[in-house]
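User: Predict the structure for this protein chain, please.
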Amino acid sequence: MRRDILPYNPELRQFARKLRRNMTLAEVLFWNRIKRGQIRGCDFDRQKPIGNYIVDFYCKDLYLAIEVDGRSHDFKPEQDAHRQVKLEEMGVHFLRFWDQEIKNDMESVLDRIRSWIDENAKPTPPYGHPSKEGNQA
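Assistant: Here is the predicted structure, written as structure tokens:
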């Protein structure tokens, strides 16, 4: 399957590495539940640069960013909203969770993500088995 790769500012790579090494407790707990395709077989990256921003978690197949909002987000709602709008213009979808939700009710968070995937993921035909559209007699 060919994926469109969203452009990003290469100057963000080093900062993204630093963020990966210094994740919050909620981010670590969440990462341990979604890495290696544990949620509907989806491959997520953490601290992923997209455009001029870095999202907490990103599934390139679904164009889905998942943000874990903690206390630092209490003081910059306008900045977060602007950032989200810019990324949505690039086709990125967002799910946001408070860090306390992840710490206190992980299963509910994961259920909401599974529901989003079930409602929004577009199935692709298996390799070698194109759809039969247009092949009708």
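Residues 106-120 form the longest helix (15 residues).
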